[in-house]
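Entry details:
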Amino acid sequence: MHGNEETLEQKCFAQLRPLKVSSEILATAACLMVLTLADNSQVISPWLYSYCVVAGITCFLTWRARTTQGLWLTGMLLLCTCTACLGSLAVAIGNPIIWFLPIGLVLSLPASAMHAHPLHAFSTGAAIWVTLFSVVQPHFDRHLDLTLTLILITASLLVATLVCTTFCHTRKSVFDLQRQLHGMAYKDTLTGLPNRRAFMEQLTATLEGETVPAPLFFLMLDIDDFKKVNDGYGHDVGDQVLVEVAKVLRNQSQGHNFARLGGEEFAIVAQLADVGAAQALARGIVVAVSSSRVFNFSLSISVGLADHKPGESMFSLMRRADLALYEAKSAGKNGYAMAEQALLGA
């Protein structure tokens, strides 16, 4: 994967996790503050503070979560805990029916935007109201009061789901746009291969990592007599040649870092068992390209192969592969040549 691509699920998780953690810490602190204020006004059961302990543990679980589903489950647990805490406090201080709707609405609606899927928002809101009903057990003097309360609760669940759906669509639109821009920045538009930027970034990351894979081989590839193809058959045919060679390269180089560097030049960085395996890869590409035909004429490619020496710079490695490529061209093309040694001072 080139250029640091992410899936939509990974992107949502990266965006939601810090928001979830900070909001849950704030909710836990708010519950603790409300309990402390109530305790200063009248005596309440010290067991109510245990809700804050559970909420604190849930904040830690959210911080440790690694998926959006994990965020949803820990978030639901925390909101239900806060709901039970405030509902129990409302019962303890008397006249809980006054606080019934405010508690449910304050805890369910703001959290609706902090979910990766609308179903998560709906189920969390439903869990909050179920918890509140079970703790407070409100008594309505009139049937109309119960009916209006249920209508308001239903409306809050629908609004929460709608808000979450809107945010999910927005996140997906932004993600699709970012992925499109990523493709423009890191892919060659003609062949669909990674471009020079993607290739160089990954190669730099590989060579500058704590442990450089070994053995590591660099292959520089160049289509033979490509200028003659463009001059004799036109640039449209030349483009078809590039596309055909790119197909061969993609098929032969799966699992390796490969790219079109520009023009008729391609490159591969491969971690292989030994020099023999690297030569087999180069030979396989040469044979596969020579077996391809575009508009009834055959193609050929030359390959320069260099093995990475310990401590060798990226530019030295590429330069040695480039010199080996010239050797392959001088030897008659349609083949490969192996670089001998690292360039001094490179």
User: Anything to note?
Assistant: Confidence is low (pLDDT under 50) at residues 342-346.
